[in-house]
Amino acid sequence: MSSAVASSTADPSSTRRKASKACSRCMRYRTKCVPLRSDAVGQPPCEACDTLGLAQECAFLPRGQSALDRRIPIRVFYPIDLPTSGHAPILIWYHGGGVVLGGINAENPFCTRVANSAKCVVVTVDYRMAPEYKFPVGHEDAWTAFEWVYDSGKGRLGVDISRFGIGGSSSGGNLAAFVSQRAGVQGIPIQFMVLGVPVCDNTATADTYKSRNVNRHCPGLPGAKMLWYRDQYILTAEDLSNPIASPLFGSDGAFKSSVNKVFIALAELDRLRSEGEAYSKKLKTFGKEVDCRTYPGVPHAVQAMNGFGRHPADVAMEDLYPDNVEVDVPQIEGGGPWLRLKTPMVLGEAPIYRAEDSTLHYVDCLKEPAELHILKLDPTTGELSASAQDGQPRILQLEESVTVQFFREKKPGYICAYFAGVAFLDEETGKLEIHKEIIPQDERSIRRFNDGGVDVMGRFWLAEIDRKALSLGMGRLPQDYGEPLGRLWRYDPDGSLHLMEKGLRLFIDRRNLGGEPDAMVLSVEGDLYIAMWASSRVMVYSSEGKHLKDIKFTARNMACTSWGGPDHDTLYIASATDKRPNKNSEDDGGHLFKYNVGVKGVPKYKFKG
To answer: Are 242 and 106 within one domain?
Structure first.
């Protein structure tokens, strides 16, 4: 009853030297990884990837199997800038795939990112899978690999086992949870655990967990596929409720002695979400420190989209914003909402101030139906006018969603961009007159208009946005995504339309920093005031691109700004409701904010048509 876990070498420094000259198959992981077997079946290992073995007694393999009958390959990822002195922490990671699919190559990008960003050594395990090997063989291999890494890690891998982490995705999260419980019972300390979209209860049905029902047709893990995985590996109904297969049913002793710090990443559109929430809740009942986060709008297979792990933007955000304050940039408190609306906006956009009658106009472009709001202000103070009905705006429902609007010089109402082109909007009735369709019908699922402006010559500029890139996060696009589809157009008062393909230049690049720039306005001093989405602030940049200061507010999603007030030195800011499941319950998104800058702003010009 023994097994062997393959390790690269007994000398970790030698391991790293070998990795630095490894073959092209190894180096594609962009880190010093040490494969412990050939990437292709039947392909002999190269010199740099030579495989050595170490036999160790294991009480969990079937009787009659010897160390020579089975080796459990592992792969070791060393961070590129691993310190030459001391020992790095270690994370052992189990891949997903329903204990049927996948393998040691399945999650190389994720393990590479974790190794480099967390400065730790990552070990992945090639455990046996169904249909050839049934329950609990995969779990036994997971435990055997854990034991070997824990017992031999310091000497063989050069790691600090006093900083030992464990984790896995999907079925790999199930293996990690099982290992954490068994390790606790046996008195083996683990410092932290990371579970990505884990399987926690193999008895789960659409009747017992809400997400199993509402997400039964979602991509990545539909109901039939989940049952197929389960039936390939687990043969009996009794085994489904075995705590090895369903760690949610672990004993009180197993939970009490298990790992104390746990991070659980769940996907909103995943069938497994509810059981992950249940596992988090049970851990907390035993006093464990659990950070459980549900990522909105993504399915079970989000990790295959490179969604989990620390993105460079997240790393940069942590470096630049310790305690949410950017280093060396003054922070000014902007405060809470200036006007709390009876019904918070879904996405407030396009505020414009008209001095002639002291009114503030803006839209809720994602409300169904979309709405135009007109708010009467006091001309001497810029505060709410006594004539404003109940301190609330006049609201008109719109036939189409409007994303940006500007007053017209020669006629009443507005010129605006709707999702597909240019339109005129009646201020009294809310009637929308489609004037110029630009985006073809068959491309509206991937393109829409998002923002714009009117220049000093009275011409209307409108900009598209890539809807797919927007869903991924403009600051978090994969490296191979290419250039987003956004285009810039100009619509002139004479009715001519121009695609602006030349003359564009980069002013500020925040793609690897926190938050996403949204609408912006200019002061007479030449400073740019930028509403920052997902950052709770308005950032101020000089005309030379220097970050001057931040104005912080109590809403996460600051969407659009406008100058206004009697002296035209006040910023009015529309915000959006935070739709994330794990949002801050005290977030003030969806209301109106204002801040007296004390510097006059450049007015928003009118369209000369």
So the answer is: yes
Annotated binding site for substrate, which residues?
448, 450
- Are residue 267 and residue 167 in the same domain, yes or no? yes
For residue 248, what pLDDT is reported?
Answer: 97
Q: Are residues 250 and 347 in the same domain?
A: no
The DSSP letter of residue 252 is H
Closest CA to 345 of 531, 529, 558, 563: 558
Which pLDDT band holds residue 85 (cuts at 50, 70, 90)? low
Active-site residue flag, 239: no
CA atoms of 284 and 262, how far apart (whole Å): 10
Is the four-CA dihedral 471, 475, 480, 482 of positive or negative sign? Answer: positive
By the 8 A CB rule, do 33 and 112 touch?
yes
Q: Which pTM was predicted?
A: 0.52
Task: Check 518, 527, 550, 588 and give the catalytic one.
Answer: 518
Does residue 382 belong to any structural domain of this protein?
yes
Closest CA to 259 of 137, 201, 158, 173: 173
Q: What angle do CA 526, 527, 532 make, to 5 degrees?
A: 145
Distance CA(556)–CA(17), nearest Å, equals 46
Q: How many CB atoms lie within 10 A of CB 203?
A: 16
Residue numbers belonging to the annotated binding site for a divalent metal cation? 349, 518
Domain span at residue 374 reads: 331-440+513-596
Instruction: For residues 157 and 15, give the distance between their C-alpha atoms in angstroms, rounded to a whole number.
Output: 8
Contacts of 416 (CB under 8 A, 6+ apart): 350, 402, 403, 404, 405, 406, 422, 423, 424, 425, 432
Please say whether the beta carbons of 173 and 265 come within 8 A. Answer: no
Tokens linked to 73: 């390959």
Q: Give the domain CATH number at 381.
A: 2.120.10.30
Task: Count Cα atoms within 13 angstroms, Cβ side, for 568.
Answer: 14
**Cβ atoms within 10 Å of 457's Cβ, excluding its own:** 9
Residues paired with residue 374 on neighbouring β-strands, in sequence order:
361, 394
Cis peptide before 136 (omega within 30 of 0): yes
> pLDDT tens, 314-343?
444 444 444 444 567 888 999 999 999 999
What single-letter DSSP state applies at residue 7? B
pLDDT over 80 at 23, yes or no: no
Bridge-partner residues for 165, per DSSP? 91, 192
pLDDT digits (tens, 9 = 90+) for 485-504: 678 999 999 999 999 877 77
Assess whether 342 and 252 both reside in one domain.
no
Reference 333, options 549, 533, 148; nearest CA is 549
Tokens 């932290």: give the residue.
192
Which residues contact residue 508 at a Cβ distance below 8 angstroms, ignoring those fewer than 6 apart?
Answer: 517, 541, 545
Q: Mark whether 121 and 198 lie in a shared domain.
A: yes
Directed axis angle between helix 137-152 and helix 171-185, to 10°?
60
Could you give the CA distance from residue 556 to residue 461 in angstroms, rounded to a whole number? Answer: 28
Same domain, 258 and 397: no
**pLDDT digits 0-9 by tens, 260-305:** 999 999 999 999 999 999 999 999 999 999 999 998 888 888 776 6
- Is residue 61 within 8 A of residue 53, CB to CB? The reply is no
Residue 542 has pLDDT above 90, yes or no: yes
Judge whether residue 82 has pLDDT over 80: no
**Closest by alpha carbon to 570, among 595, 539, 537?**
595
pLDDT tens readout for residues 520-540: 999 999 999 999 988 899 999
Closest of 295, 333, 327, 302 to residue 536, by C-alpha = 333
